[in-house]
Write a structure and sequence with these properties.
Layout (H helix, E strand, L loop, with lengths): L18 H15 L2 H8 L5 H23 L7 H24 L5 H8 L2 H12 L3 E2 L1 H22 L7 H27 L1 H26 L6 H28 L2 H4 L5 H14 L5 H19 L2 E2 L8
Antiparallel strand pairs: 1-2
Length: 313
């Protein structure tokens, strides 16, 4: 490709396409995210859910601001700000806040199984956002995965009539993250992986700072050194460094295929919860986790029929 050949393209992709490389980057991001649920559960023992959900974003926003300033990144343009707002609403505000409140009253292993629906949800969001046309079996399997997750949550809560509000928060967190992942994966092709999450953090920082100050005014954090360490991990890795690898993998894509790497996340999270928090691995948790993971795996492995590409002028 000639040096000046990009002059005919409005926005140059900053990430090349290579499926195996994308899968490895996705696996690295998932490994970092797998500690999020157990560490959030550990932190809520000494801090309010509002402080954890917003404070971790403030920590990450400080790092993001420094990174953007030191590397003198160019400002996003036009509609990119609106798309960054979608990313911020999904992964900076929505997922952290919803999971923090949910894990205040539910075990980490339970939360990990419900969140196991995220791979299929991310694939669905990627399909819709990318204007692809999946076969009907894709939607059937995705629906089965949703029913499996809801059934598991209901059994853990005492029946379908006893579905706990924390389960609804976790399902809302799944939807928020899926939308943020799909939009962020596309935007990372234009802005770059770490630039995308950094600008999203900066954009959401005024709201997150306000919520953090509000949480401190309501209840001052009273945590142990271990709980503060868990909070630090959530801010530095879960909210910042982990997205470097994850968005890079999604940007390389294809997103529907890379998203299947998330299937190992609930398995890892449940193992970390057992090892680090001493939670029991019940047969209900194991069976529910396997059912949700199998449904999610089947959904993201369905061959997709992409929409015909439109020729440029």
């Amino acid at each position: 490709m000639k040096h000046n050949s990009s002059a005919t393209i409005g926005i140059r992709p900053v990430v090349s396409s290579s499926r195996p490389t994308g899968l490895w980057w996705g696996l690295l991001g998932v490994a970092a995210f797998s500690f999020t649920v157990p560490f959030t559960k550990a932190a809520v023992a000494g801090m309010s859910p509002l402080f954890i959900g917003s404070g971790r974003a403030v920590v990450a926003a400080v790092l993001a601001t420094l990174a953007l300033a030191l590397t003198r990144q160019r400002l996003p343009q036009g509609a990119q700000w609106a798309r960054l707002a979608v990313v911020a609403g999904g992964v900076v505000a929505g997922f952290p806040l919803l999971t923090s409140f949910a894990l205040a009253t539910t075990p980490a292993s339970h939360g990990a199984v419900v969140i196991a629906l995220l791979p299929a949800a991310t694939a669905t969001a990627a399909v819709l956002r990318g204007r692809e046309r999946p076969r009907p079996v894709f939607w059937l399997i995705t629906g089965a995965g949703a029913l499996a997750a809801i059934a598991f949550a209901s059994m853990q809560s005492g029946g379908f009539g006893m579905l706990h509000w924390a389960d609804l928060l976790l399902l809302g967190a799944v939807v928020s993250a899926a939308i943020g992942y799909a939009e962020g994966g596309l935007l990372a092709r234009e802005l770059g992986p770490w630039q995308t999450v950094s600008w999203a953090l900066v954009l959401a920082s005024p709201l997150m700072v306000f919520l953090t100050m509000l949480s401190v005014a309501q209840q001052s954090p009273s945590a142990t050194a271990v709980q503060w360490a868990a909070f630090a991990y959530l801010g530095v890795v879960s909210m910042f460094l982990g997205f470097f690898a994850w968005y890079h993998g999604l940007a390389i894509g294809p997103m529907a295929q890379v998203s299947q790497i998330q299937l190992v996340q609930p398995v890892l999270s449940i193992c970390w919860a057992a090892l680090l928090l001493g939670e029991d691995l019940t047969w209900t948790t194991i069976i529910g986790g396997v059912a949700v993971i199998l449904c999610a795996g089947a959904a993201v492995r369905v061959r997709l029929n992409p929409a015909p590409a439109r020729r440029g002028p």
